[in-house]
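User: quick one, fold this
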Amino acid sequence: MHLPQRHAGYTLLELLLALAVLAVLVGTTVPGALRMYQDSRLSEAAESVRKELAGARTRAIESGLVYQFRYEPEGGHFAVVPFETEIEPTDANATGTGATLGVGRYSKFAGELPKGFTFVACCTSGATGGQIAEAFLQGLPNAQDLSGVSWAPPIVFAADGTAMGDAAFQIVDARKMAVRFEVRGLTGAARLGQIEPEVR
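Assistant:
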């Protein structure tokens, strides 16, 4: 007696079962991968701001001037500019008027958070810092736009590297997840917190 040969293949039930298992795997891994990607973007944005915050302290130490870091609450702009009017040194042997008063050649920087991220003031009484004087923004490519921004109170760094008081703020993404910044007055050091829900 000759038995009929079975052809190798999958039944409809086996295919449906495989698809169901695949759907469960995708449903559990994709949200986690998406969350990791969003966390990575938030961390990168926070780290770039931390570098500029530390840069304000470094500029103060190197120049001997008081520097300020400013950010736009509920917005994305930030700036590192002198806090005081500087006296620019010039060569005494050069022809001309000698020392020049005003804000000009000293290092300054302005930037903006990537789309979807904003600065949020935290742990403050809601005080605002107003605008930065146009003289301090001169030389920045977007000085005209920055002169109309309503800034948070300045985080001020002295020439000895200390900050004038403790400060805290957050960077928040569209998910309302945040990274908190803390600046210690005594050392001027800026510390980043963990990614956690926004605190108002």
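User: anything notable?
Assistant: Residues 88-104 have pLDDT under 50 and may be disordered.
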